[in-house]
Automatic annotation (TrEMBL):
Top-level division of the source organism's lineage: Bacteria
Protein name per the record: Holliday junction resolvasome RuvABC endonuclease subunit
Source organism: Aminivibrio pyruvatiphilus
Amino acid sequence: MILAIDPGRDKCGWVFASEEGKLVASGIFSADRAAEFFRAVVSGKGREIASFALEKTGSFPEWFSVHECLVGNGTGKELLLSLAKSVSIGVKLVPEKGTTLLARKLYWKHHPPRGIRKLLPEGMRVPPRDVDDFAALAIVLKFIESQSAR
């Protein structure tokens, strides 16, 4: 599984995705809970991560392992990099350029608009919640794209 994190000063979006870039589970944690999040990742226990989840497709596996850990290269990455290092998780930095706009598109792909939102042009639709977790999914997709371009 791929773990990606969209860092921020106050909050971080995260996603577990398949090697093909399909969302498995995602969520948002406050920066002050970052150490707790990394401990949950290292535990490999699905129920530990599930407590941080906002989105998931089906049930999260009881046990999991991270094959790739990606972190966006934006604001707040230093804390995540030091925490990952402290628990022996190797990290690859991925450029974040364009991930916020892609995150909105990904949100609406997973939650098609209904009612009056359906009538709004795509550029005017604002998701009803923060989409930092979908920004993390955008990081995964950018990484996969960069790997296939090699």
